[in-house]
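Protocol step 4 of 5: obtain the predicted structure for the target chain.
Materials: sequence only (see below). No template structures provided, no constraints applied. The aim of this step is simply to have a reference model before the mutagenesis design in step 5. Sequence pasted as it appears in the construct record:
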Amino acid sequence: TYTYSIPLETSCGQSYSRAMGSFCLLRSRCLPRQVGLPLVMHRQYSLDISAQLLRTQGYVNGQWINAPSTFPVLDPATGEQIAKVADCGPAEAKLAVDAAYKAFYFWKQHTAKERSVLLRKWYDLLTLNKEDLAKLITFECGKPMKESLGEIAYAAGFLEWFSEEARRVYGDVVPSAAKDRKILLLKQPVGVASIITPWNFPSAMITRKAGAALAAGCTVVVKPAEDTPLSALALAELASQAGIPAGVFNVVPCSREKTPSVGTVLCTDPLVGKVSFTGSTATGKILLKHAADTVKRVSMELGGHAPFIVFDSADVDKAVAGAMNSKFRNSGQTCVCSNRFLVQSRIHDRFIEKLGKAMDAELRLGHGSDPNTTQGPLINVRASEKVEHQVMDAVSRGAKVLRGGKRLDGSFHQPTLLADVTTDMLCTREETFGPLLPVIRFSTEAEALAIANASHVGLAGYFFSQDVSQIWRVAENLEVGMVGVNEGLLSTPEASFGGVKQSGLGREGSKYGIEEYLDVKYMCFGGLTP
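Step 4 output (structure tokens):
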């Protein structure tokens, strides 16, 4: 158990020390700066969950396995060690692939209804254990508990959705030009799927992929992010309790150092038929090269750089609420977070003023287990340093800090509002993955679209307008895979998730998600008597 507060001194000379759970953001005229004192023990936070769900070994062929070494999992809010987890390497990854390949030949023989029932049981167990699963996310990822509970509901939703989609995999009977033939198109599972997931949604990114794969009749090997393996291992425990057969769902956690070698096995082994990855565009390109040698099916959900456009006709209050949801969820660490805020000239000042007040009223930094916390830490110090670098770059080029602007102890960074931002600044040219909200003023719709589309990635985009004609024009012309119109949150199991340009390949969720794990086989049935 551990607790802390941050000793701060304001730029106007007033000293204070507040518990992180109730730390308030200050206006730029009175920005807090670190005094340089160590963290002060103030309040205790403890990870208290069922022992069954706190797993630290790999999970292969229905068995919990050790590895020659372990690696630490840290609480990003404190830097304290939560657990030591088996550091699986290429040998363990190969064992998992072999187990999944063997299991595939009996799993695909299960009827769609049988697979559906097992996935539904898995869903039920996630729902039953939502509190403990949410605590794991909070302690290894840093999310506030409210958001962690939301992620578990989201993660369970994919299992529920794909338990239903399992029974709706339809082929086709195609009219033949020849009277003595019948043409049938069958859908069959691709085989073993390697699933490589990120730390920012450590449960939902697994169920979104594995739910579809298992529903289709595939088996999977999951490599979770090195920062958040505990959630993946808890999912494996619940999969076992649900009765999912040995070898169908496997998990090989590993450290950052072993990730390249484990990833190579999962992307090059000839027994693997499919690779599904969520993460950075740079890493996705490496995995694509690995998968190319054996011409594997791939799904890639890669980086985003989402624009958030507020037109003059927008309802400003709704736009502010949408901006708060879109930017500050998970402290800005989601691939669909808005990264560039474009506000039309006539309502620019009003939007900025109301947004600043909303940040003052709603955002509280702290440990995710504190019920007052709305903003947890970033995943590590490197992430906080990246935000700091972008803020410094923007300020050096003329941007004004209206709220926040400072790195705090460890991996915390103040939610930050910047005005007078221009497109030459680093924060408008690369994904931030942190609580930085830069606002660009624009004059015309054409100008906004040009700025929004001036990116090599295109995952999500958002805009607020009450002009129906404009809504259709902008929605069709934004070069992204997902558009939120007068809405800052758009992810749901029922809708497709994916991007264009260098934001990836394929779609997850929706009725299209299961198609990523299916091959179409053409069967020509000839020699029939007309």
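Step 4 remarks: Residues 306-492 form a domain with the Aldehyde Dehydrogenase; Chain A, domain 2 fold (CATH 3.40.309.10). The longest strand covers residues 182-189.
Proceed to step 5.
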